[in-house]
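User: Continuing from earlier, I have the next pair ready.

Assistant: Great, send them over.

User: Here they are, in order.

Assistant: Folding the first of the pair now:
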Amino acid sequence: MTKITLPEKRQVGHLTLLRQGRKISLNEYNALTIDEQLSMVHNTKGKEKYDLLINSKYVEKIVPQLHPQELYLTVNSLGTEYSLELLSLASAKQITLLLDLDCWDGDTLSPILSLAWLEILLGTGEEKVCELVRELEPEILTLFLKKHLIITRGLEAYDDDDAENAKRLESLYDVQYASENAAKVIGAILKIWQDREQENYLLIMEMIRSENLSVLEEEVYLIRNNRLLDLGIVPTSEARAIYSYINPDTFKPGGKPDFRLEAEDVQLPAALIACAEPQNLLAEIIAGGVDHETGCELLFLANRRMSADNIDLADDQDVAETFQSTYDILNLALEFLAGKDRETAKQIFHNTYLLQLFQLGHSLLKRCQQQAQDIASGRLYPYFDYHDQLFIDSLLQNPAVLSLNEAAEQPAGLQKITTREQLEQAQSKLKQMSALEALFTSVLPFDLPAHEYEGGDHPTLSGVFLTAVANQLLERGFSPVPLVKDDLPLLRDKTFTDGTLSESFKENIHSSMAQYSVECRFFAEFCLDSWEQIFTSLNEASTEATFHGELLVTIK
């Protein structure tokens, strides 16, 4: 007996997600309620979704309940071979969205794609073809057909005494097709309508004759855009407003009225909002589930982002990544406003437009990126040590990424900035780098050397500072004049005791840094670590040091 995988239910984040579980028989599967089966369908993709649908005794009721975008993703994932059965059960609203998303090239209906879709719809069977002419907007069908044919003669030419009518057989119109394939596909569709839907057939044919193609195309395009707008799918130029910068320091949450009007007549996009998982505070806020209005608002927001970024709405992975990134940015905004206070965050989430919360989260990241860009464009950027340059470069990625140094409480690596803690880490590091800029441009009593110099790696800030310290120890003044190799053993002897860095040297470095910049204590710690690694690697048999990282030390 055929078996179906029954996912196990597990509460994760905003929805009761379904995880892979045991195999059940068709009888067990069909013993579930329609709502239970629909929940399973929402939480699967591709062929697995198809298997659940096609084996359900409620399939004729379930398919029309799928959100049109869910069906669109499924059809594109399955391909035509598996899609015909589902399309034969799809509603006119679902079919309309498929045509809206797949058949337009800018503001022009694609002749190739429109004919391809007419052929697909023909493959769903005569009953569906008849249903489409009854339920789809006649302007859509008229435009799709008018792209591929011309009617040269119609009802007014019909005359019982006309000898030519003997050649017309039962045809009421003379039609010239743009291609053989158009004649084959559209001819078959028209024959079905003429035989079974005569009134609608005559309406479509007369509209084809009377409508101006360019005017009709413009009208259908505008109506199509309005339908997409209702789902948050807008032209890219308009959608880019989602990334408008707002000042995080003056942002005021609240102000959202009831969202039911916007969500009216829109199916709950359960499968779409479940394709990614909110985390942290956002997960806690909506752990109990997502109501219809919130689900629709989340979909509109994600669709607007995908429009802005030209994301392929037919790509499961791209759609899932967009939803995940959207959840992450919303979480960042909520934590910025509410900290860890769940009740405050919940109130903000439900009383503030999600678009505005997204813009706040995006602006927080954008502010960090702008600070990073200012540093990257500055004169000191080439001198920053590798880990600092990596930090700046990572922040400037899209999306921004936080580069973390290894520490006792965390491993080194790259993390998306999705929490207030990570945002504060980024801001703290940016503040440190700004302090370094001030230290080396206006506080220290020497100028930076040229970035290109003979005999060594590119100089870094730690290398410049350590070289100046070394010269001071050798009583040559506090200046980054390159050392010679014979200086190294003497420097090691002056700064190490019993093989370890002496406490007096550490205290001296911290004391000196405190005189120059209290905010740069972190830099003193880094320089001490670098000094220790440099001279620990130096041995009696070698006249050169093995350096850790990039240092401004020229050894001759």
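And the other member of the pair:
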Amino acid sequence: MSAPAAPMGTRGRPPKASQNRWPDTLAGTGHLVRLGLRRDRLPIMLWITVTVAIVLGGVAAAETTYPTAQDRQARWEQLQSVPMLVVFQGRAFADTADALAVQQAFAVGTMAAALGAVIVVARGTRNEESSGRRELLGGLPMGRHADLAASLGIALAAGAMIAAMVAGGLVTSGKPIAGSLALALVIGAAALTGTGLAAIAAQLATRAGSAMWLAFGVFYTLHLFRGLGAASDGSAPWLTWAVPNGWWENVRPFAGERWWLLLPALAWILLSVMVAFFLAERRDLGAGILPVRKGPAHGARWLRTTSSLAWRLVRASVIGWAVAIAALGSALGYVGAGAMAEYADLPWVRQWAAELGVAPESSFFTYVVLVLVFPLAAQALHTTLRIRQEESGGTAELMLSGPTGRMAWAISFAGAALMSPVVLLTVLGASVGFGSWIGGGRLVADVAQFTALTVSLAPAIWTVVGVTVLAHGLIPRLSAAVAWTALGVGILTEIAVKIGVLPQVLFLLLSPFAHVNPYYRSTMAVYPVLTLVSLVLVAGGVWAMRRRDLPT
């Protein structure tokens, strides 16, 4: 018996299965939302808690930080006289305590909101494809874009929750309702912008880590564009108005709110989501829009050792970071040299430099370096966690099936993680010194001075790397959570100490970065001590890896 023929459409073509494809491509989204909430419940809770704590803590500490009108006026004059503070932090539109608190919380709050969204979306999309779980779920009645829609839904809901908690906390503490709602919407918009950028990056890159760095790198670049436009004294204001970060800043919470600027921000978010779905239609599962360059058929002779292989695997990341840091450091050195030469005689600059133990004209550079150490630590942690990727991906088992020993293999990756921040810190110091020389400084003296400062921060990063290696040896499944928590504690405790929420002694106990900070450092012995501690942690992690089986 023959099967009945399918009905033919116009000119002999079969009719379309469905006139509207979107319900089919989004089928199963609700199930993936529940799965994503179960899988990423801890990162989501940490993201929401940290972001809300940063914003509410900063605003609550404003009364202590600026208790008198004289203190507030001094801070206002400081912001007007040093453009670099506007570039990295943000503008203040009034000299009230609430407006100044918004200025300090703007950069950290928006970046924390965006970073959490980037991580959640990248984990729910690109990480699921790279691990093969998305292909496995594809055998079920599930739409092509269900994972993207689910990740967007989770991130958007978390962003809305952050905004609601910020608004509720501010209103409960007695702040004006209009300013509280405006600041909450600014933080929520930052989270949604990070969501859209991560969704686009997940379609372009082939790895979750690459998508995260691409999305957050674009976000931070937009933040710097906003700052450059705000600090340009009217010569390039279009930089501020061309990016969403500038729109949020000009909403002006607690300083005469401009609600209409939230509309272009909303349009940007909707457009980025549409672009993400448009790109998702034009790539295969597991692939990215950006092509992956094929490697040579035969490896070079220098790749015969495990150490050289580990460096080869992290080489692209180190080179990319080095290029970006060299460009940023040179620009900061050139611009900052002229600015600090003009403002070095101000009383507050001299007091700040005395507390840091540096010359007044070097105080700004010291501040910038101490801020950039945290992104460099994040890169070192990403390199360290490559050990976990090699194990879970099966390449470690393949390597260890030959004459390569477990300890030699682990030490190779740990060594790459310890050396990469040294390379990047050296590039940072040399580029800042080079830019300062172009701005009228002394080449050899400036390069030597700033390189010595940047490289001196390496032991703090090594300590966090050691914690990560030890966590991987003992609890490999939680190594990533332990690593990022350790870095997050260092960042949050420093912010909390600066705004007066936590005592300084707690910062010294919990964060290795406190002991290499010129403001807190009391003795040169901290450098060998931190180095020894990091080596002990790495040795403990390598020993623990030798005592356990490879993860299945």
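Worth noting for the second one:
Residues 1-20 have pLDDT under 50 and may be disordered. Residues 306-343 form the longest helix (38 residues).
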